[in-house]
Amino acid sequence: MDIFGRALLDYHKGNYTQDIITYSSLDEKDTIPVPYLFRTFEKMPLLEQKALELCKGHVLDIGCGAGSHSLYLQENGFKVTGLDSSIGAIKTSKLRGVKETIHASVLDFKNQEFDTLLLLMNGIGIAGKLTVLKDFLTHLKSLLKPSGQILLDSSDIIYMFDEDDDGSDSSRDWIPNSNTYYGEVTFIMQYREQKSNPFSWLYLDFNTLQNAASDNALHCELVSEGEHYDYLARLTHL
């Protein structure tokens, strides 16, 4: 059931009538506007623009979706490979003109090295759980050339939990008492009449990312911060 890919193909073929609906373990219902997934560079958030400007060499666009980031890089002279586990996303990317694509999960993709690994729109979320983040970064590192870089953005979703009555941040004391990391979220996606199975997604605060990178002998640099708890990070070999 390729809900995401179906929505992308519908939009590209002119059959857009509905957006993707998401339900999360945070008791929130939200939508992903499908046209936004086809945005141009000028309409991308500043963090994404900065990430694209920092790309170098052969780029692996992990979770390429409709191919918007890949297309921008390709049009600016980069060799770029778009990778996605959604067959509909890969078909859409090809139809839009992305020259090199791979239909695979990043964890199943091996034996190639790149100058830049690009994980935008909270691409690190693919890891799903904090407990597997170290192994996930180890795999990403195996795809990286010695002088390569990993560019990713994420969000610290601490803001989604209750603060003190006076609006102040009482540090981590007010995070729900749980054995799981607060950035682990379970999602269900719906498009038209189809619903996905529940899947895990990971939102990382920068300090946690930095610690995980250090455990994998990677240097983690905070490149830029957004306006709402989001940030862009660059990981390189130590």
Summed up, what is this model?
This protein is α/β, with parallel strands linked by helices and 238 residues long. It has helices at 3-12, 46-54, 68-75, 87-96, 133-142, 206-215; strands spanning 20-24, 29-32, 59-62, 80-84, 101-103, 114-119, 144-155, 184-191, 194-195, 199-202, 218-225, 230-237. A seven-stranded mixed sheet has the order 5-4-3-6-7-12-11, with helices on both faces.
Features:
5-stranded antiparallel sheet, 238 residues, single chain, 7-stranded mixed sheet, 24% helix, Rossmann fold, alpha/beta
What is the SS-derived class? alpha/beta
Q: Which CATH architecture of the domain at 42-157 and 201-237 is right?
A: 3-Layer(aba) Sandwich
Shape: globular
What is the CATH class designation of the domain at 42-157 and 201-237?
Alpha Beta
So how many helices? 6
CATH level 4 superfamily of the domain at 42-157 and 201-237: Vaccinia Virus protein VP39
Helix content: 10-25%
Report what the structure shows.
There is one protein chain. The chain is an alpha/beta fold. The chain has a domain at about 40-155 and about 200-235: Vaccinia Virus protein VP39 (Rossmann fold, 3-Layer(aba) Sandwich). It is about 25% helix and about 30% strand. The protein is built from six helices and twelve strands. It has helices at about 5-10, 45-55, 70-75, 85-95, 135-140, 205-215; strands at about 20-25, 30, 60, 80-85, 100-105, 115-120, 145-155, 185-190, 195, 200, 220-225, 230-235. The strands form two sheets. The chain has a seven-stranded mixed beta sheet with strand order 5-4-3-6-7-12-11, with helices on both faces. Strands 1, 2, 8, 9 and 10 form a five-stranded antiparallel beta sheet that branches. Helix 1 (about 5-10) runs parallel beside helix 4 (about 85-95).
